[in-house]
Amino acid sequence: MQPTEQNPQPGAPRVESTDISARPVFLFGVALLVAAVVISAVLWAQFQYLDRAAARRDPEEDPILAEMRRKEPPRMGQPDPVEKFPEPRLQSNAVIELDRIRFTEQRKLSTYGWVDPKAGVVWIPIERAIELTAERGLPVRPQPQATQKKE
Q1: pLDDT single digits (tens) 44-55
Q2: 88 phi and psi, to 5 degrees?
């Protein structure tokens, strides 16, 4: 007796005699594609909403920086100094902050003011300090007394 598809011999490899229908596979692929498009659209809309909400809550454009950009727009080929740092920018107004620090330092170096009023310590402009140091000379540390050698 010859082995047939319905009655294979024991131990012989079996082969699926029927194929899966192409229609459910095709419909699953279409459903998967539609789901991917819908999910992408929903995510795009959500990111647009979050970007607008973040822009309303924390405007990225500082008025002082906007004024500087308006006066001197970035030249072609040179990136805006703020734009060259990757997101998230921890120091979004670095140029303005550096200008403030320099202004504060320059003001301190060119004006008079109190360091400690109770102790009578003041700061003076650096130019005046140089003049006073040139007139009076540098303070000299007292030399320690020479000790006599023991014999």
Answers
A1: 999 999 988 877
A2: -75, 140
Taking the model in full, what pTM does it have?
A: 0.32
Label each residue of 29-76 as H, E or C: HHHHHHHHHHHHHHHHHHHHHHHHHHHHHCCCCCHHHHHHHHHCCCCC
Check residues 50 and 10 and name the one with the higher pLDDT. Answer: 50
Question: Could you tell me the maximum CA-CA distance found in the chain, to the nearest angstrom?
Answer: 130
Residue 145: strand, helix, or coil = coil
C-alpha 5/C-alpha 14 separation (Å) is 8
How many CB atoms are located within 10 Å of the residue 95 CB?
16
Q: H/E element holding 116? A: strand 113-116
DSSP count for the chain of H helices, then E strands: 4, 2
